[in-house]
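Weekly modeling sync, notes
Attendees: S.R. (lead), two postdocs, one rotation student

Agenda item 3: backlog of single-chain predictions. S.R. asked that every request posted to the team notebook include the full sequence so nobody has to chase files. The rotation student volunteered to paste the first one in as an example of the format we agreed on. Action items at the bottom.

Example entry:
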Amino acid sequence: MARPRTKKQRDYHRQYYKANKAKMDARVTAWVRNKRTGWTQSEYDLALINQRGVCKLCGKPDPKRGLAADHNHVTWAKRGLLCARCNTGRGTFDENIKVLELAIKYLQENG
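Predicted structure, as returned to the notebook:
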């Protein structure tokens, strides 16, 4: 079990975090992305360059939230970076091609 931090240590860590907030937030974001999707920061950066900073589906940037690292939930194969809307939409259809085809048919028939 880790021993409790002293007040001096807590104060130091708080000051360090305040002084390096952007750096620390980027590290946490990269760690969480890797844990959830298997994408390393260098893989994400390379995909971002290759996709010119835009979503692989709709071709638009997502300046508010950044692009999500998309992967196959069964094989963990990396697919590309998607904006929040495309990533949510793809997930809503459970990656089911037949359901997506039905959605396309619905939109074609009903404008």
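Discussion: group reviewed the output briefly. The chain has a mean pLDDT of 91.
Action items: rotation student to repeat for the remaining queue; S.R. to check formatting next week.
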